[in-house]
Structures are given as structure tokens and as C-alpha cells.
Design brief:
globular, Transferase(Phosphotransferase), domain 1, Phosphorylase Kinase, domain 1, 10 helices, alpha+beta, five-stranded antiparallel β-sheet, 8 strands
Length: about 270
């Protein structure tokens, strides 16, 4: 489909080859060994260099698609009764620099994230380079028992971000990785400084949406209560329908809302 090809986009091989050679020179790589990953490339073209570096190449077309996605997400936020809080990047380089800085901030808070290497511009493209995590698994690839074990850590990490003025903004299965028995976070998106308070409950709603298919609504909400209070979950409840509209989330929003309402009623009765 032409529209799908437009959104996904491609980078000409000669440009990627030249970039790989430049990167190999920058990092004294033994050879130019590139492995393209089986991942969506709505907003970048990702590859692994020399089994050491994870590279994302961001084109002007990717930047345009990000602008379209940002507008749609802000409309969705309006549908949840709040002003939109997502912010577009002006250039491919700005997208790369944001990802590098968000990764640095998460690591500075003691959270697990790939080691940031650098972000730069090459041939009009934004390039961000991170540590490559070998043998990682996205959350969606874990067994339910593993997800249940990690659920409190997921909300604990979010609460740490939120307590320190940082939000993720794009929490989904593909952006939470398991490596070496621990959770790692990638691909935080851009949220306006004046929208952080509104984005926090959206993050919590996304985390509930990620967990529900694996562990069920009750266990997802219980895990959230390890890090958040009932009023926080009631705020997140307002975003669940919006999150459910996104194609990268498939969960039972009605069950999650019902479970949040149940724990809220229990809290009122003093039996939570």
C-alpha cells in the first residue's frame, strides 16, 4: 500500500553504507558488520553495528511522520478531557538528541537504559547511537509469570521518573525490554514542559494497558498500587479509552476501568 510505504519509509542503501563506514571509523570497529532489526521503522531505521552499537537513523520523512503522530496523539488527549501535551521535534537531529538526553536522564535516576553514546547529523539525517543490549526480549515476549514478577518494577520505574520531572510518553510492549533479569526502558517521547503533570496519568494508563493482556486487570492494578495511590489510578482511568484507540495497545479497557473503580470503592469503604 502506497500510504503504508510512505509512513514507513526507507533510507537508500548507499547512504546507510556510508554511515556504517563512518561509524566504524568513529568507534574503531574491527569491521563494518551491520544487522538490520526486524522492527517497525515508522520513526527511524534501526540497525546494530559490530554487535556493540544500536543505531537509529532518522530522516526528514520520519520527522514528518512524527509530526502527524504528534497531532493525532494530542487530539486523543483532548478526547480524554485535557489539553494535548505531546511536542513535535523540528528536525531529525532534534529527535536524535532528545532520545539521547532522555536515555541519559533515565540512567541518572538509577533506571536501566542502554548506555548513551552520541547523537549527530549525517547527510541531513539524525543519528542516535546507544549501547546494544544482547539477548534482550521485549515485554510482549515474556511468559505471564515473568511479566507478573516484573510488574512492580515497571510501576516503580515510572514513579521514579514522575517524581523527578520526567515522563516516558510512549510506554508500550516494544519499549520495555528484559535483559539479564531486569527491565530496561527505551524510546521516551517528547512532552512539553507545561504538560508533564497531565502526561503522568497517561503513562500509568499505558503501563496498565501493557500489563493487562499478560497478567489480567486485577494483578495489573495491584502492581500499580505498589507505587501509586488510588487517586492517581482514577486520573489514569480517564486516559484508558484513548490508549485503547492506539494500534500499539490491545487490552481490555473495560476490565481495567472496572478494577480501578473497585479499588476506589474499597478505599472509600475503608476495606482496600
Amino acid at each position: 500500500m502506497a500510504v503504508r510505504r510512505f509512513f514507513r519509509g526507507t533510507v537508500e542503501w548507499d547512504r546507510l553504507e556510508a554511515l556504517a563506514v563512518e561509524l566504524a571509523g568513529r568507534y574503531d570497529a574491527a569491521e563494518v558488520r551491520v544487522e538490520f532489526l526486524d522492527a517497525d521503522n515508522w520513526l527511524s531505521t534501526p540497525f546494530v553495528l559490530d554487535d556493540r552499537y544500536f543505531v537509529k537513523v532518522i530522516t526528514r520523512q520520519n520527522s514528518l511522520v512524527h509530526a502527524l503522530f504528534t497531532g493525532a496523539r494530542n487530539l486523543g488527549a483532548f478526547s480524554s478531557g485535557t489539553e494535548g501535551f505531546f511536542e513535535h521535534f523540528s528536525t531529525p537531529l532534534a529527535m536524535a538528541e532528545h532520545e539521547l538526553e532522555a536515555t541519559r536522564r533515565m540512567r541518572a535516576l538509577g533506571l536501566n537504559a542502554p548506555r548513551p553514546v552520541e547523537a549527530f547529523e549525517a547527510d541531513g539525517m539524525g543519528v542516535v547511537v546507544l549501547e546494544y543490549l544482547p539477548r534482550f526480549r521485549p515485554l510482549k515476549a515474556l511468559e505471564p509469570a515473568e511479566v507478573r514478577r516484573h510488574a512492580p518494577d515497571l510501576f516503580g520505574a515510572l514513579a521514579t521518573m514522575h517524581a523527578n520531572g520526567l515522563v516516558h510518553g510512549d510506554l508500550r510492549d516494544e519499549n520495555v525490554l528484559e535483559c539479564g533479569g531486569e527491565l530496561y526502558f527505551i524510546d521516551a517521547t517528547n512532552v512539553r514542559d507545561d504538560g508533564i503533570d497531565r502526561a503522568r496519568p497517561y503513562d500509568v494508563a499505558c503501563a496498565l494497558a501493557v500489563l493487562e493482556p499478560h497478567v489480567g486487570a486485577r494483578d495489573a492494578v495491584r502492581a500499580a498500587l505498589d507505587a501509586y495511590e488510588v487517586p492517581d489510578l482514577l486520573e489514569a482511568r480517564e486516559f484508558l479509552d484513548f490508549v485503547n484507540l492506539r494500534p500499539d495497545h490491545t487490552f481490555d479497557a473495560a476490565r481495567v476501568k472496572g478494577e480501578v473503580e473497585r479499588v476506589a470503592a474499597d478505599a472509600i469503604r475503608g476495606t482496600g
